User: Fold this.
Amino acid sequence: MTPGTTLVWLKRDLRLADHAPLHEAQRHGRALVLFIIEPEWLASPECDPMHVGFVLESVAELRARGLPVLVREGPAVNVLETLRQAHGVTRLLSHEETGPGWSYARDRAVTAWCRQHGVAWTETPQTGVVRRLRSRLGWAGRWQARMDAPALPVVDPASWSTPPGLLLADLPTPSALGLPPHGRTLQPAGEAAAQRTLHDFLAGRGRDYRRALSSPLSAAEGCSRLSPHLAFGTLSLRTVHQATEARIAALAADAQAEERSFAHALRGFAGRLRWHCHFMQKLEDEPAIEFRNFARSADGLRPGDDGVPMSALDQERLAAWQEGRTGHPMVDACMRSLRATGWLNFRMRAMLVSFAAYHLWLHWREPGLFLARQFLDFEAGIHWSQMQMQSGTTGINTLRMYSPTKQMRDHDPDGVFVRRWVPEWDSDAYPAPIVDERAALTAARERLWALRDTRDARAEADTIQQRHGSRRSGLPPSGPAARRGRRPAAPAKMPEAPFQGTLFD
Ligand SMILES: Cc1cc2nc3c(=O)[nH]c(=O)nc-3n(C[C@H](O)[C@H](O)[C@H](O)COP(=O)(O)OP(=O)(O)OC[C@H]3O[C@@H](n4cnc5c(N)ncnc54)[C@H](O)[C@@H]3O)c2cc1C
Assistant:
């Protein structure tokens, strides 16, 4: 019997380094490499042309380095079946994916197709997210073991053998796919850019990480900016983890205090790589959190939730928030900056969501879809968990309400960032604030307290904590100690303990 063809299906893993499916395929002789432009992706409400551009540029780079990536448009099952018939595909290799609902449905359809045609599909994890996880107990140890496992060597495209006569058509452009120009100035795509970004962060840019990350003035330079690369897999999380740990070890061994303080900064960064998977695990364990509240006791709380229509005023406020014309300068500056660059630092993302959820009292789904289209690094598991956390619907986290006025005072005291993005700020052309900050926050806090103080909500919080709460420190601090800038005493205190109170930040 002639051996069948192996097919490597690239998804969010557009790289040659530390790539298990490509590595494995080299052992099987003839192998095809495929990227599918799926209509479900292009039509999904989270997808923006900038995402498609980033992916196509990354694929173009792989081809330029000699990897013969086939690019096909169409529903995954149709594309796979066409290739199976033409090339006798019997083995499918890919990475596991924890994505939005449409990708989950597609994976189920591909599983059924594999079964029908006797195709063996091997999916390999590429993050610390665990499939079919029974309990969060021991999760952190599994994360560590995966991240510490040896990274795989870079695949050499020159040694690649493809079926004879295989022709690679030109890559489609976003406009050929019917997409409008995105008009943003974005960070570069591709594995080489990802490696450069990691290298210059660890070499020096990350020195001031802990101080730089909160202000939108310093964060664009002082944060790693690896998020789109991790989201589209132009770099593996393990590569980042291992390079960071090696750098920390070298810096910590240095006698100079400055170098040791750099090591301390990088430890803060290293912890965030764990958060990446901690939040994605929530979507993996409960895919419905993309659409509905973690805490069902919060159902129907705000306009925009299922069965609660938005009024004309709600619609107008949502539009003002999206367009950066709320009359709250820090909110408007952050939104306009995000729309122009596809990136914003964590604190300001949280402030934008807090403003939509508490000041404007809007359900998180519409604002979340809008932000997904603005973030070049859209990663469903992180995004929807964070949208709910910053909107107070997880049932377990401390309510954190950001005052845009305080954020400006703390992080842009001279108005440099605000003037850059809202030049009309101190002129008559700038609109009056659409809400009274203090009154809106007080009302929001009272409504949420009333809800969370019920027996049902408290019982539900325990269940959510069991299922999704972290089991060790080193995860996002959310208690009163965090407010004072300290970590909760490790390791006994759980950062995601059931609801404690409200923080005004
Ligand atoms: C409402 C909201 C939505 C968000 N949506 C996304 C998203 O779609 N995709 C995304 O990658 N991040 C998201 N984040 C988390 C965070 O804002 C970004 O990861 C970070 O700003 C990316 O910049 P960076 O790579 O320079 O981060 P760095 O500070 O350099 O961190 C390095 C990496 O750690 C991970 N990380 C950092 N902060 C967090 C966090 N709070 N939670 C989980 N992982 C984290 C990311 O992978 C990031 O690339 C969201 C945050 C909020 C508040």
Notes: The chain is about 50% helix and 5% strand.
